[in-house]
């Protein structure tokens, strides 16, 4: 998956972080500390964790998975994500990947978030449901958009089909995606899952942008 000399350049996320959104802190703080953005505007999801800080090397891993369809590293990636989100995987009743719209799925041929969720589900022996979230609107790609534009882009884009509402009622769902940037997509997904009857939503991603969440004004 990676040349040996790149391994030392990966930054695994552990230690001091916001206990809500998983933003890493530069100094040691109270173990239950929230970042300023979460205190000002708590996210819809309960907790978010990521295995890696998004940087030059982790970006190669994400792109190899997302655009090249490289699946050979999935067992290793699932191990990283399990370590990063130990409490979350223990509490989860089920896993759900962030869905692609049908048009994008057909064009790409796969959903990398489904692959991540499946690998993680096998590792932790929890069920994975790829269809409890439906992307009902074909939204522009989030890359290059501001935080506010990202929120507007995915607002109302997801829903839980009626036939799956009883399946998720009262459940704790672990939402799986490749990268967390501003959190707009997982927020929209979490909002849809809660509207569909889920009790709590946690989030785990392969990587995350290390900067703090912006506060909506």
Mean pLDDT: 87
* Count of helical regions: 9
CATH top-level class: Alpha Beta
Major sheet: size, sense and barrel closure? 4 strands, parallel
Unreliable residue runs: none
**Share in β-strands:** 15-25%
The number of E-state strands comes to 6
Give me the Rg, rounded.
16 Å
Task: Using the 3D structure, state the CATH architecture.
Answer: 3-Layer(aba) Sandwich
From the N-terminal CA to the C-terminal CA, the straight-line distance is 41 Å
Question: In words, what does this structure look like?
Answer:
The strands form 2 sheets. This protein has a 4-stranded parallel β-sheet with strand order 1-6-5-2. A two-stranded antiparallel sheet has the order 3-4. β5, α9 and β6 (200-208) form a beta-alpha-beta unit. The chain contains 9 helices and 6 strands, in the order αβαααβααβαβαβαβ. It is α/β, with parallel strands linked by helices and 217 residues long. It has a single domain, classed as Rossmann fold (3-Layer(aba) Sandwich), CATH 3.40.50.2020. α3 (74-84) crosses α6 (112-124). 35% of the residues lie in helices and 15% in strands. The radius of gyration is 16 Å and the shape is globular.
């Amino acid at each position: 998956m990676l040349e040996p000399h790149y391994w030392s350049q990966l930054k695994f996320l552990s230690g001091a972080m916001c206990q809500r959104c998983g933003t890493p802190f530069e100094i040691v703080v109270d173990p239950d500390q929230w970042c300023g953005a979460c205190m000002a505007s708590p996210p819809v999801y309960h907790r978010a964790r990521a295995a890696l800080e998004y940087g030059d090397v982790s970006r190669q891993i994400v792109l190899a998975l997302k655009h090249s369809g490289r699946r050979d590293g999935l067992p290793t990636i699932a191990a990283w994500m399990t370590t990063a989100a130990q409490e979350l995987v223990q509490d989860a009743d089920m896993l759900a990947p962030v869905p692609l719209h049908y048009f994008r799925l057909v064009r790409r041929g796969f959903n990398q978030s489904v692959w991540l969720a499946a690998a993680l589900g096998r590792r932790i022996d929890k069920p994975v449901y790829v269809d409890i979230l439906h992307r009902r609107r074909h939204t522009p790609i989030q890359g290059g958009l501001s935080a506010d534009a990202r929120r507007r882009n995915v607002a109302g884009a997801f829903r839980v089909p009626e036939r799956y509402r009883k399946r998720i009622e009262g459940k704790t769902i672990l939402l799986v995606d490749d990268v967390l940037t501003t959190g707009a997509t997982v927020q929209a997904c979490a909002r849809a899952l809660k509207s569909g009857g889920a009790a709590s939503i946690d989030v785990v991603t392969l990587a995350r942008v290390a900067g703090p969440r912006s506060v909506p004004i």
